[in-house]
Design a protein that fits this description.
Layout (H helix, E strand, L loop, with lengths): L7 H9 L3 H9 L2 E9 L4 E8 L12 H10 L24
Antiparallel strand pairs: 1-2
Length: 97
């Protein structure tokens, strides 16, 4: 994901005050151990999370609370039509378990 210049502090503040009903929707979708990292030079965001085997992450974009969150965050980051954050897939180049 990509932040807009000058948006890092506000992005962090909004996530520090994550809506309880959004946190519930994330948990209900099977997400746990979720972190977002910022590269301060490029303003790129990297999200990493784990999913339970019976996750329903594909249903998350259909949830009204998720869409409201995207609308709320759209002024801070690059977005697709419908305000979904613009994402780029990353290729895994190493894993150690």
């Amino acid at each position: 994901m990509q932040l807009k210049p000058g948006a890092a502090a506000e992005y962090k503040r909004r996530h520090d005050d994550l809506w309880p009903h959004l946190a519930k929707a994330l948990r209900d979708a099977g997400i746990y151990d979720y972190s977002i990292f910022l590269d301060e030079e490029s303003l790129q965001l990297f999200a990493v999370f784990k999913l339970w085997p019976d996750h329903k992450i594909d249903d998350l974009p259909l949830k009204p609370v998720m869409r409201r969150w995207w609308d709320y965050m759209a002024d801070l980051m690059e977005v697709e039509p419908g305000n979904r954050p613009r994402e780029w897939p990353l290729q895994q180049v190493f894993h150690f378990a």
